[in-house]
Design goal:
With about 140 residues, the chain is an all-alpha fold. The chain has two helices and no strands. It has one domain: Helix Hairpins (Orthogonal Bundle). Helix content is about 95%, strand content about 0%.
């Protein structure tokens, strides 16, 4: 029976590793949820930015009958600095979204890796139970 008791200890060890993998998966899932929330906030900011950009463009149309140096200064500001600023900020938001998507993909990969380890450990456990059964049969 001493051979089988060693195998039972090995099974316990594998089960502990499975539990650790499950804890890792839960941590990765929590991180993913935080990233998804951050991504949603950034997307909302991007939507707000788009609305503001449309409003700024609309003011250019609203003032089309306006003439003079103040109009030209206003147009230069809106078409130049303001629109450029909107584009720059939009690009930054897109980069942030892309980085978050990459981080989520890395976490998905880690979750998949942990699930693969769990499957391998379960396979080893099943093989050990088969070996235990054959040892116990031989002892009878």
């Amino acid at each position: 029976m001493s051979d089988a008791s060693y195998l039972y200890a090995e099974i316990d060890s594998y089960n502990n590793k499975i539990e650790q993998c499950k804890k890792n998966i839960e941590q990765y899932k929590k991180k993913k949820e935080k990233l998804k929330k951050a991504k949603a906030i950034i997307k909302d900011s991007k939507s707000d930015l788009s609305d503001e950009k449309k409003t700024a463009k609309k003011t250019m149309v609203d003032f089309k009958d306006w003439k003079g140096s103040n109009y030209e200064e206003h147009q230069e500001m809106v078409q130049g600095d303001l629109m450029e600023g909107y584009s720059t900020y939009s690009n930054i938001l897109n980069e942030n979204i892309s980085e978050i998507n990459d981080a989520i993909s890395r976490l998905d990969s880690k979750i998949s890796d942990q699930n693969d380890v769990i499957d391998q450990l379960k396979s080893h456990i099943n093989a050990l139970y088969d070996l235990i059964a054959s040892i116990e049969e031989d002892e009878d």
